[in-house]
Amino acid sequence: MTNFSPFAKQMYVASATQLVAVSLGGSLSYPSILFQQFQSNETTIHTDLDTLTWIASMHGLSGLGATLMPTIMQLIGRKYTFIGSSILFLIGWILAAAATDIFTVLLSAVFHGLSSNCISIINLVTISEMLAPKYRSALMISLIIEQTLGQVIVANLGVILDWQTEAMIMSAPIIVALFMAFSWPESPSWLAFKGKFEEAEKAFVWLRGTDEEANKELKAMIAAQREVKRQTKKMKLQNMVQEMKRRDLYMPSLYMFLLLLNFYGCGAISLFIYTKDVIEIGTGNPKIALTGYIITSYILLTGSLISFVLIKFFNTKTVLSTAFGSILCLL
């Protein structure tokens, strides 16, 4: 890709993260399809509600993967962390597509659970370290949109296709993303952190070009890492304590905590998994429940698109506080 512009190369890197986000979103609504089809007479696998609930709850394993991510990323780099997380997630889809018993389906859910937050984290880190600042915000938001799009695709395909065919379809974005990722350079920030300054410069130029703004950022990044390398262990500890007291560290951390609290506290994941069952219990009509489930998927996608527009026109704090207040009012 040496003949392409820096913009094209950055979008190439971002495209792989977006493709993985589509597949990740599909895994969130996939348990709902399993609920629907395993309780019907259209599949060879039949099970009870308790086992299906266990399958849906495997998303909770994402906490384990997320805990290990900082260490893994620092050891092997961003590129191979992205590839490894994507392979784990792909294994989950392959197991689901090949499953002939409930144990294999449960195992596929375990792989999805372990790798889902890993993918979410490495996607954000990849965009923040490998793309120019002016593109980062929009592409980070688009990750949520792509994830919701994956949920919509699985919800709609579940009406006409069986769960194993859906698993094969949702494997495709990850396979394409993996091929793309192998042609990336490593993150310049990570290479500089490891003291590989020449490689960091080559990777940075490949991604960002050699314009004045990019050169300033490159020099600042390398200078900062050279300074860190010159520090003693005692100085590093003192600097770490000082960094933890800085407002520009703990305030973004607080915002991220509130964002995650919003995401999980609003009940979107639980709602999406159990929507059809809740509507069917309330109405007693499977057709109405199915229609309601599909409508819910489009409402989620519409909400994601609206959030993209709101952040463009309003202050981030305003949007966040409004969303948080709306969730509290609905409780």
UniProtKB/TrEMBL annotation:
Main location: membrane
One GO molecular-function entry: transmembrane transporter activity
Limits of the Major facilitator superfamily (MFS) profile domain: 1-331
PANTHER family, alphabetized: GH07001P-RELATED, PTHR48021
Gene Ontology CC terms, in alphabetical order: membrane
Name of this chain's protein: Major facilitator superfamily (MFS) profile domain-containing protein
Organism field: Heliothis virescens (Tobacco budworm moth)
Ranges annotated as spanning the membrane: 53-73, 80-99, 138-161, 254-274, 294-314
Stored InterPro entries: MFS_dom, MFS_sugar_transport-like, MFS_trans_sf, MFS_Trehalose_Transporter
A Pfam match: Sugar_tr
Keyword Transmembrane: yes
Subcellular localization(s) per the UniProt record: Membrane
